[in-house]
Specification:
Layout (H helix, E strand, L loop, with lengths): L7 H15 L10 H6 L5 H7 L5 H5 L10 H21 L2 H9 L19 H13 L1
Length: about 140
């Protein structure tokens, strides 16, 4: 679905960043990603998410149960990883993504993007914001 929202290079960069952060291979078709998440993300995703200062507090709340996260924890981690990977792809690098996550946005009612995750559909709102900024 994101492959139609972005140019080919941005989409490839997003998928590579998602692989680096969440361990979801770029070889997995996009339509299969959520099933792979449901099977459990590697616990290493917590360390990858913690490297982003604005997301570190959220990442520390995810409790691994061994080498893989449980289904619920995997979905929470995926939302964070998805937005982080997309922000890095759209904005060009990890530093720009972290700055975006930490800066209040008029599009988000003055909230910082990192604060929106705990709201209903927070990741969806952030995705729309990134799609708009890419155009």
């Amino acid at each position: 679905m994101l492959d139609i929202a972005f140019d080919a290079q941005t989409y490839r960069t997003y998928r590579k960043r998602l692989e680096d952060i969440a361990g979801l291979s770029v070889a997995i078709p996009e339509r299969e990603v959520l099933r792979a998440v449901g099977d459990g993300l590697p616990a290493s995703v917590i360390d990858q998410l913690s490297a982003s200062r604005p997301l570190a507090a959220y990442a520390r709340q995810i409790r691994p149960k061994g080498a893989c996260l449980g289904q619920k924890e995997s979905y929470v981690a995926f939302e964070l990883a998805f937005v982080l990977a997309l922000a890095q792809a759209v904005l060009g690098n990890a530093e720009a993504a972290d700055q975006w996550l930490a800066t209040p946005s008029e599009q988000l009612g003055g909230h910082r993007p990192a604060e929106v995750f705990h709201h209903d559909n927070g990741a969806a709102h952030l995705t729309v914001s990134l799609i708009r900024s890419a155009r």
